[in-house]
Amino acid sequence: VYLLLGLLGFALVLNLNSQRIRRGTKPAMLAVLLLLLAVLIPGLGHRVSGASRWFRLIGFSFQPSELAQLVLILYFSDVLTRKRSLLQDFFQGVLPALVVLGLTVGLILVEPDLGTAVATAAVALLLLFIAGVRWQIAGRRSDRDQASSSAGGHHLHRFPAPVTWPGPSEPETP
Description:
mainly alpha; 3-stranded antiparallel beta sheet; 174 residues; 7 helices
């Protein structure tokens, strides 16, 4: 049954036009966020061992966070392609994608599902990296901060790093 459903899904996606997929990413992302919210509502989401991660329909279980991973990849691919010229501007290019990522990962963490949340965030951050986002734009400091640093402020390289770490049989020394 699962093999047939997978093959049917494969055949459907294979025949889709890429422009059609791109047009559907925003509504799909909104639908996934709503599903992630709905699974948390008692009575809608099925609870197992304290975690509310599944929908149960006619003998099948469905986990919206797994769908969220796929849709987030499609959404990020679309957004990062359309906003390629804005990717060096944090507020216009990167922040909107990070807000969607934060909402998605936050809702997955509430289920709670740490493994899926970490994997989802890692894939999304990897897509940002592949798209060419410069990480320095998120960590820019103002001219005043740079001046105070160069005048003897906070330089991390001034603090000595530990030479060795204690092994499992060695006691820690304060």
